[in-house]
Write a structure and sequence with these properties.
The protein has 549 residues and is an alpha/beta fold. The chain has 2 domains: 260 residues, Nitrilase/N-carbamoyl-D-aminoacid amidohydrolase, CATH 3.60.110; 210 residues, Rossmann fold. The chain contains 15 helices and 20 strands. The strands form 4 sheets. It has a 6-stranded mixed sheet with strand order 5-4-3-2-1-14, with helices on one face. It has a 6-stranded mixed sheet with strand order 6-7-8-9-12-13, covered by helices on one side. Helix 5 links the parallel strand 15 and strand 16. The longest helix is centred in the C-terminal third of the chain and has 23 residues. The chain is elongated, with a radius of gyration of 26 Å. It starts with a strand and ends in a 23-residue tail after the last strand.
């Protein structure tokens, strides 16, 4: 039996577009006995509260009927993911539907519903305990959906769907997925699938979704493990792709994982994929970034150029009285290397006028910190004005370390619609910049990478004036924000670094993290990379009183 696993990049609730993608794949692989798509592929994952609109389900069901008609015409069978209604409830089942030659021959409903991390499926879906096994062309097939294989993920589920399959004698297990990417996620999936394959003595087909959906990015990377749990087929990461296999003649070659020692190769793919899809799915022309001559804006511009093409990226440098000549020169060189258009808009006179008007209105000159923030807000307004006028989306450029401690200005450098690097700690920013230069030549000038980090909002200002060295700060933040998600070896490594920092300094930093929550609530969406991103992945009350001891 020939099975084709199709990973596609859908658009949420664009039913005609999604059907076109699915139907083209069915036509292309009509010689297969079974064509497998991903979780909630008709609506795209995740539709959130769009599911509360009856029209969404009506449109989805229209597409399902069109798929039925197509499979009847071509005499093929498919497995698709869909939301199915539950009688008398305003919630749904997250279902996998088997359609053979125009007929719905089998339905399976997801049994484990995740509500942790970035997931909130219990808001719309309810679990079901139903039979996952069906027979097709003489083969015994188990059908599962995503979280069903993650029983051991410490979520307190009272039932393991795999247990019911262990004594059946399956020919293959198929899992439909929409699993967001993060650092180390593929290897984690592979380990889980490998263990299940060994337990069930069954090959496992893992069919996944790909593409950027708001702040989440799905890596695709659909794969097949043999009954020993060994990797024998792997689709592309962050690209649409298809794997086709014959169940009776599975590949015998065991595949190595291609990104084993290349974490930043995957990070770059994830960020460029997420940015490209955000811009194009939202219908923008391109992006505009305020270029300070520092590492964060430089990296953001490099990612944007690689994702969107040089003609779709604009930069604006806005020197003030405190900007070094080197910063302006570095912006010029960066944009020359990237071959993108750079605008120069000085803010010296505007800043002086703002200070004078403040004194005129309130009877005194603004404080030093207020003056620093005024410059950031003038710059944010200028870039937003250009965005308004040009139709280019404004990207913001704060990294995770700065956002964690509130080292960012509301309505200033936090202005924008999307942040590509907001889930990268400062050391990740430097590492990714170095990786880009290794791969593409010196796109980011060495002078930018080597200079001491500074907001340049006052005379001689350096980040180190008010923050620990980022080597120590990043270790403290990672341990504080992600400790419960880390491996024991990671915790021990980070703790050794943190132990070198004075306890009072540690407490000061942790207090800064909690105090800055009100800022992060107003931050733009951040592309998800780490195990616990700000925003969708870390939901904290602003008005809480908490101090880590």
């Amino acid at each position: 039996m020939k099975i084709s696993i199709v990973q596609l990049n859908y658009v949420i609730a664009d039913f005609d577009y999604n059907f076109e993608k699915i139907s083209k794949a069915i036509y292309t692989h009509k010689d297969s006995d079974l064509i497998v798509f991903s979780e909630l592929c008709i609506t795209g994952y995740y539709p959130y509260d769009l599911l509360t609109y009856p029209e969404i389900i009506d449109r989805q069901n229209e597409v399902i009927q069109r798929i039925k008609d197509l499979t009847k015409k071509l005499q093929v069978a498919v497995i698709i993911g869909a939301a199915t209604t539950v009688s008398a409830l305003k919630k749904f089942h997250n279902s996998a539907l088997v359609i053979d030659k125009g007929e719905l021959v089998f339905s399976y409903h997801k049994q484990l519903i995740p509500s942790y991390g970035v997931f909130d499926e219990a808001r719309h879906f309810i679990p079901a305990k139903n039979n996952p096994v069906f027979s097709f062309k003489g083969q015994s097939i188990a059908l599962l959906v995503c979280e069903d294989i993650w029983y051991d993920n410490h979520q307190g589920y009272d039932y393991n769907p795999i247990d019911a399959l262990s004594s059946i004698g399956l020919d293959v297990t198929i899992v439909l997925n929409a699993s967001p990417s993060m650092l180390g996620k593929f290897r984690q999936r592979q380990r889980i699938v490998s263990n299940i394959a060994n337990k069930l003595k069954s090959p496992i087909i893992y069919s996944s979704q790909v593409g950027g959906y708001d702040e989440l990015v799905y890596d695709g990377a659909s794969f097949i493990c043999n009954k020993k749990g060994e990797l024998i087929a792997l689709a592309k990461h962050f690209e649409e792709d298809v794997i086709s296999v014959d169940l009776a003649n599975l590949p015998s070659t065991i595949l190595p994982y291609p990104y084993q020692n290349q974490p930043y190769a995957l990070v770059l793919k994830q960020l460029t994929c997420g940015l490209y899809d955000y811009v194009h799915k939202c219908g923008f022309k391109g992006v505009v970034v305020g270029s300070s001559g520092g590492i964060d804006s430089a990296l953001t511009l490099a990612i944007a150029t690689l994702a969107l093409g040089k003609e779709n990226v604009k930069a604006i440098t806005m020197p003030s009285a405190y900007s070094s000549a080197g910063s302006v020169d570095d912006s010029v060189k960066l944009c020359h290397n990237l071959e993108i258009e750079l605008f120069i808009r000085e803010i010296k006179e505007e800043f002086l006028l703002t200070c004078q008007n403040f004194e005129k209105a309130f009877g005194h000159l603004p404080k030093k910190l207020t003056q620093e923030n005024m410059q950031a807000r003038i710059r944010g307004r200028i870039v937003m004005e250009y965005s308004n006028d040009s139709g280019f989306l404004m990207l913001t450029t704060g990294n995770k370390s700065e956002l964690a401690v509130g080292y960012a200005t509301l309505y200033g450098d936090m202005c924008g619609a999307l942040n590509c690097i907001g889930d990268l700690y400062k050391h990740d920013v430097y590492a990714l910049a170095e990786y880009i230069n290794q791969c593409y030549g010196e796109l980011i000038p060495k002078a930018i990478i080597d200079k001491a980090p500074s907001a340049e909002l006052s005379e001689g200002q350096k980040d180190s004036d008010s923050l620990p060295d980022y080597y120590y700060l990043d270790a403290m933040l990672k341990l504080y924000l992600e400790r419960d998600l880390l491996q024991e070896t990671e915790i021990k490594h980070l703790q050794k670094i943190v132990d070198k920092v004075d306890i009072k300094e540690q407490k000061r930093i942790y207090k800064m993290v909690e105090f800055a929550e009100f800022k992060r609530k107003q931050a733009p969406q951040i592309l998800f990379i780490q195990r616990r991103p700000f925003g969708i992945g870390r939901r904290m009350p602003v008005t809480a009183k908490f101090q880590k001891q």
